[in-house]
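Appendix B: complex inputs.
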Amino acid sequence: MKKVIANREINVNEEGYLVDFKQWDREICECIADECNVIMTEKHWEVVEYLQDKHHKEEPLSIRGIKKSGVINIKEFYKLFPGGPLKVSTKIAGIPKPKSCI
Amino acid sequence: MKNLIILGAGTAGTMIANHLVKKLPNKEWQITIIDQYKTHYYQPGFLFLPFDIYTENQVKKVGKKFIPSGVNYIQKKIELIAPDNNRITLENDETINYDILIVATGSKIAPDEIEGMDGPEWRKSIFDFYTYEGAKALRDKLRTWEGGKLVVHITEMPIKCPVAPLEFAFLADSYFKNKGMRDKVDITYVTPLDGAFTKPKATKALHHLLEEKGISEVTSFNIERVDYKNNTIIDYADTEVSYDLLVTVPTNMGDELIERSGMGDDLNFIPTDKNTLQSKAYENVFVIGDATNLPTSKAGSVAHFEAEILEENILKYINGEPLEASFDGHANCFVETGNGKALLIDFNYEYEPVEGTFPIAGIGPMQLLKENRMNHMGKLAFRWVYWNMLLKGIPIPFVSANMSLKGKKLETIG
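Resulting structure:
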């Protein structure tokens, strides 16, 4: 389905996650962040880059992975992206919501 | 003579040994299986042991019985895999070389990953049921427990048999009802997922059952620590859940051997091609069962389906042919729902658990995603199937390695 974000038509799934990463840019990112009540700071951008990097390397994302990321610890991660940090941060990063496998 | 070595004689290792011994020419290939433990456990039975539904003897047998003659069985501890040198080191520095290696070292619980879990209250008020010892200790606890707040908890994904904690909650409901003390027990199901199960369709069916049985749910709970002094679990968002009896599924990890050998990911699972089952790093190393990092369930049924695929690919690899057999992530699980009923789910990488009939399209006799007695009989009969057919690599009639789409209402995973 399509959704207008930053005055552009963007392809998203039912939960509002981008389905085509090529459509992602910083402007789109900030609009989605705003919808999630997150104001992007330098630390947020750092986390977003980390998540995108992991995603492009096809490495699964998990809370445990965050612990070893070297970018942020889990407590901070929860503070930066309240209400389910992995769900919220991946949406903002324009990548799929992590499937907890299985 | 060439050597094919299988590490681990659990469900997956035993099955693939039975498959390959029938297929590899015994004049050219020696098959060896290595495992230090003498007992083979029927792990699905650990779910029933705490509720006195199964006895100890129904869930364990001597492993040797299931290793086919013609396979060299070494009962020693494995110290190291050196995949660059195609060599295994056993205890006492004994070494053994391989041409092909199959890793089937499984997964196990790691309660020490969470602060306070593996402390002084471990197996006093904090229990697991993923080990024989844990399930037995919990049985003894439940026999005399007078009631209170029972919390059934999952630490983090992935876990072996992701439906087992739900089944535990359902069976606990029945167990306390039968003891005439359900009113004295408050059951809460706590999960890091955002619903009862990993797949939305099954989550809906299972959520309904939780509600019906008066089991409350706490979702998206990522545990940080157990405060065992105050009987509370606390997550990273500072949500607290208190308990009198905590039944947790600790972090599941691959064997330490994998870590020692530098072959695993963060959780000691081995990066594996999800279709061919070849390890990503070494072309003569294959991985089966819980030891892989595949995005499907860690379950005996999965190992069973993988064994059929792996047998084909090992033969192709030996003949220098492309590895054509492709695993689709097929999992098939009975979900015990209490009161002598069960439901059945069937899914793979691509398709969610669906409604329909199983194993024969349009006939059944079992029904997918529907709770009934026939499915429960299927689950209990499965113990016989496990010991007598599955481990021996005897195909189960009408059940194919890759998921059949016939007789099912299909929905792809988005």
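The first strand of chain B starts at residue 2 and ends at 7.
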